[in-house]
Amino acid sequence: MSLDIKSRREKLKKDNVNINLVPFIDILFTILIFIIVTSSFAGTATDANSHQTSDATGKPNVTDTSGNSEYYIIPVDGLQHVIVNGKDMSYLIQDDAIAIHARVIDQGQITVNNKDKSIEITTPSGMSPNQAVRKPNQ
Questions:
Q1: Do 75 and 126 share a domain, yes or no?
Q2: Could you tell me the pTM of the whole model?
């Protein structure tokens, strides 16, 4: 049996190569669906007990609360230090959060330092550091 190379070459030249994209698109969509279903959206998830804070001022987004609250919980991931008028009040930190009086939020100054995991608070005149902050569960 002999191979006819000339006829084979002519046959290959006549054949048009077609690429079918349908299986490629099917596999692409399957991979996309798998990635979407298995992805973790932990960066955008919020805890039911926490409130978002504004990076610029450190004041909470009070639109998420209802009613007249006297204290608002300020969560900071890994919170280690709370300084109120120069006094260390870090012993009041619980679950990386601290409760701050509404008057401090409205009239005082709150500085959240995410790099140092700390909050510095200046209270309005006439308010003591013990009135300004407390444990979140009280």
A1: yes
A2: 0.49
- Count the residues in the chain: 138
| Bridging pattern class, strands 118-122 and 81-84 | parallel
Asked, for residue 81, whether it belongs to a domain, the answer is: yes
For range 49-78, the mean pLDDT: 61
Contacts of 71 (CB under 8 A, 6+ apart): 99, 100, 101, 102, 134
Tell me: the pLDDT tens digits for 18-38? 788 999 999 999 999 999 888
Give me the pLDDT at residue 33, please.
94
Is residue 72 in some structural domain? Answer: yes
Helices (H), 1-138: 5-14, 22-38, 102-107, 129-132
Judge whether 76 lies within some domain: yes
Number of domains in the chain: 2
**CA nearest 99: which of 126, 125, 74, 62?**
74
